[in-house]
Amino acid sequence: MARFTAIFDACVLYPAHLRDLLLTMAATDIFKARWTNHIHEEWIRALVKKGHDPAKLARTRRLMDAAVPDCLVTGYESLIEGLVLPDANDRHVLAAAIAISADVIVTSNLKHFPAADLAQFQIEAQHPDDFVIYQFDIDPPGYCRAIKGQRERLKIPPMAVDPFIGLFEASQMPQTAARLRYHKTLI
Hints:
There is one protein chain. This protein is 53% helix and 8% strand. It is α/β, with parallel strands linked by helices. The protein folds into 2 domains: 4-128, Rossmann fold (3-Layer(aba) Sandwich); 133-186. The protein has a 4-stranded parallel β-sheet, sandwiched between helices. Helix 6 (115-119) links the parallel strand 3 and strand 4. The longest helix is centred in the N-terminal third of the chain and has 14 residues, at 54-67. The protein starts with a strand and ends in a 5-residue tail after the last helix.
């Protein structure tokens, strides 16, 4: 059973390799992964602007929701107006986290979720690199198996270990890349 709950901000669902890593880790049931329809709309809108196929993204959204039981947070909307964050457009993420008593908001935009603003709700914002490392440390062999499975699912094109690790190096996740490199024979 999951030990704690994490809300994924749209920015960590935008890069496919990071989204896949976080969902792969969520399947190990060490933590409970959650998001909202609003968060879905944000990451999908960003990718559509980059020229991605909306139908394929809608399929990804459905697959995500099917892969993680009870992932969608609802009933948080009434909390949004009473919250204050540096970027008002992020209040919906905090509202969802409050509604389900989440422990952490996983986001690359830490400046949008200052510790002082989150402390009263006993919620912490973590960069995905830190979040992945903390989770990895709970069960290194289990995560190595899960991450190997993630890499092996990449068929078009297939991805060798070093280029796979390179994805995380290129996306400002140096701790994750270093940990994967250390365990490279297992992934």
